[in-house]
Design brief:
Protein name: ABC-2 type transport system ATP-binding protein
Order of helices and strands: EEEHEEHEHHHEHEHEEHEHEEHEH
Organism: Dyella marensis
CATH superfamily of the largest domain: P-loop containing nucleotide triphosphate hydrolases
GO molecular function, one term: ATP hydrolysis activity
Number of strands: 14
Helix content: 25-40%
CATH class of the largest domain: Alpha Beta
Keywords: ATP-binding, Nucleotide-binding
InterPro entries: AAA+_ATPase, ABC_transporter-like_ATP-bd, ABC_transporter-like_CS, P-loop_NTPase
Length: 324
Amino acid sequence: MSGETGRNDCAIRARGLTKRFGNFTAVDHVDLEVPARHVYGFLGPNGSGKSTTIRMLCGLLTPSEGEIDVLGLSVPREAEALRKRIGYMTQKFSLFDDLGVRENLQFMAAVQGVPKARTRQRIDELIEQYHFGDRQKQLAGTMSGGQKQRLALACAVIHDPELLFLDEPTSAVDPESRRDFWEKLFELTDAGTTMLVSTHLMDEAERCHRLAVLDRGVLVADGTPAELTGRLEGRTFVVASAQPRRAQQPLAQADDVLGVAQVGNELRVIVREGLADGDEALARLKQLLAERDPQARIEPVQPNLEDVFVAVTRQQHPGQERAA
């Protein structure tokens, strides 16, 4: 592939990206474009192929098929040159528990080849930016999950990477720490860093500039959160019933219903494509509930990303094993 990627506002471009382990296809002919200076989300259930894809994009895993261009470099052929320009953070945080905050940063600076003349200034910047001024000597192993997360992010950006890969980085921390973490990500994006973040959390997916949904190794949806939810307009409803479990049964068994789930005392329903419009879908739902709960109230609602996730993953072939 050509070296134009870094110059045309596309940080990552993959075509036909595939990874097989024996007879098992973990990632199946994925096409991907990640805009520069964006937070790009990889949304998918555990085992959908997110981590395998990220490892191929980083040059850590050789694809079975396909072409990868990252920051204008052909991967995996130019993976060594790429590693100097990217950061990588996993959910395990990869810190040395018996080293302090500054010591962890010093170690990572050496690993990433930060010039010695620049190291002290860079570490001081990160300690101030990530609020470790009073914890520089604290051992990483004694820190809370949110503190470890912030330190791991600081370590991942010690060398000012142009592109940062984050593989489910907030799965082990509380909601408040996740919010603080995302503020740091947007600060980095504002400064010019591109992010690729894998997650299975809907509130995180909503924060991304753009999303790809992976299921069983297949890219099943791609777009901004607004574009993805817009494709479900007229197909999502709330059913208020005095007996939601009783009302759920005929809906769950109907071919026209793609998904139904109880949320509190209500049912959230997604109908399949093919019904002419929202009015036809509404009439069909009333027909399905006529015998079990004719008094049920059915109202259209705005789709959300969880609805998108259910809709696109339910269209995949059942019974297929999930990728790592």
